[in-house]
Design goal:
single chain, about 230 residues, alpha+beta, Jelly Rolls, six-stranded antiparallel beta sheet, about 20% helix, elongated
Length: about 230
């Protein structure tokens, strides 16, 4: 019987699984997004800034400095796909006056969030994503990238997915200084493209269904255990 209780405990833990890192848009399976084409290319915006998702939900962006709307291939030459509208954490593209951290807060908690991210200097960098649930940092993830002029979509995707709508804020940041940005106290800033959001349950079978299936399995094993106990010779 202890085996049965152990199985039940495992099923219960699965209901509250920790967020996991996702490496691509396909893995996130987003059903909402912030499209930065709503901003004017090369226009400067104040921080904090409230924007709308494609489903008209409010998202608040804050870097303490200000933002610029850019476009890969014209006002930004990097590792995104040509034509991608971008959100840049600076009011210009110099080393001074940029931010290394972007805090995105959601009007309603979400299941998942993700975007491609690139530092505003050429060479290797590490990007970090911190997820908040309430006032607590629920999980942190890191992606490694290298800024180039390839314009081939190679900027790393940094996203995460939970099994419940528990993510109320996401903080993106650049961790690694570069020879092209020697004074990280002033920061070089970074850009992201479309901010993908998972706002409803995953298309795969929901956790509640998996839990119910687990309970059914436990019940079946218990019946088998009782039957075999009765069949044993006295």
């Amino acid at each position: 019987m202890r085996v049965l209780f152990a199985l039940l405990a495992v099923c219960a833990l699965a209901v509250h699984a920790a967020p996991i890192q996702v490496p691509s848009r396909d893995a996130l399976a987003a059903n909402d997004a912030v499209d930065w084409s709503q901003l004017v290319d090369s226009a400067v915006y104040p921080s904090p800034l409230t924007v709308l998702t494609t489903s008209n939900s409010a998202v608040r962006a804050d870097d303490g400095v200000g933002f610029t709307g850019l476009t890969e291939g014209t006002s930004w030459i990097g590792g995104f796909n040509v034509g991608d509208p971008l959100f840049f954490t600076s009011v210009d593209q110099t080393d001074a006056g940029s931010a290394e951290t972007l805090l995105v807060t959601f009007a309603q908690p979400v299941y998942g969030v993700g975007t491609q991210i690139e530092a505003n200097y050429y060479g290797p960098y590490d990007a970090r994503l911190d997820l908040s649930s309430g006032s607590v940092v629920a999980a942190s993830f890191v992606a490694h990238g290298s800024s180039t002029t390839a314009e081939d979509g190679s900027a790393p995707y940094l996203g995460a997915l939970a099994d419940a709508p528990t993510i109320n804020a996401a903080r993106y940041s650049i961790l690694t200084p570069s020879a092209s940005c020697p004074n990280l106290d002033q920061d070089c800033g970074f850009a992201i493209n479309r901010l993908d959001l998972r706002v409803s349950a995953a298309p795969e079978p929901p956790t509640a269904g998996m839990f119910a299936a687990g309970l059914a399995l436990v019940a079946a094993l218990r019946r088998l255990f009782v039957r075999r106990s009765r069949e044993r010779p006295g």
